[in-house]
Amino acid sequence: MSERWSLIFDCDGTLVDSEPLLARELAVTFTSLGLPFEPQDYMLDYRGVAFPFILADLETRHGRKVDDMERRKELEQQMRASLEERMKQELEPIDGVAEALEALSAHPRCVASNGPLRKIKLSMSLSGLAAQFGDHLYSAYEVGIWKPDPGLYLYAAKALDTPPERCIVIDDAAVGLKSGIDAGMQVIHLNRFSERERTPEEAHEIRAMAQLPSMVEKIIAERSAASA
């Protein structure tokens, strides 16, 4: 009998094209906190990074600590609410993702994201992908571990009852790629910005979701042959 392989998907930028929407809302929020920020700052420097870590880095860069915790909390809540409304109007799945998931339907799969669980659930619902993952949605906010720490992906592997070495991570952002590599998993980089981003040597590159099924099967075949 063939070995069981499981697929662990990032959400934003991998399954749904939510990153440009989030970038615009973050720009409003951080600027309101007195921390200059443009949408392209997120796209170029912070894709996949959780809100608290972006805020901490901006505070360090600008030498300005946001001490008003109530104001900070209020603005983050406003950002989340505005983002949800924007998602309801504009969110689209990544091109080819539904077909790729269908082609890989024999493999157990889950979503593991640095975003809040509510946002993951909304993304799956709005994109029509909810049935592909069911309740197998894991948020760093629930687990208490954020990428690039490998802990979130290791948690997801355990939930899928699959050893890390037989898990394949599909992610588009540097923090997620590092998380999967450090977890000892096979990693596929959905490199949608190949003109400016490089795929780590330890990862496998695809540039469109249409390439995912063949890459998954190639990895499984190569790993099976190596262990034979």
Automatic annotation (TrEMBL):
The keyword 4Fe-4S does not apply. Its cofactor is Mg(2+). InterPro entries: Beta-PGM-like (IPR051600), HAD-like_sf (IPR036412), HAD-SF_hydro_IA (IPR006439), HAD_sf (IPR023214), PGP-like_dom2 (IPR023198). GO terms for molecular function: catalytic activity; metal ion binding. Keywords: Coiled coil, Magnesium, Metal-binding. It comes from the Bacteria. Transmembrane segments: none annotated. The keyword Coiled coil applies. Residues 65-92 form a coiled coil. Belongs to the HAD-like hydrolase superfamily. CbbY/CbbZ/Gph/YieH family. NCBIfam families: HAD-SF-IA-v1, HAD-SF-IA-v3. This is Haloacid dehalogenase. It comes from Halotalea alkalilenta. The lineage of its organism: Bacteria, Pseudomonadati, Pseudomonadota, Gammaproteobacteria, Oceanospirillales.
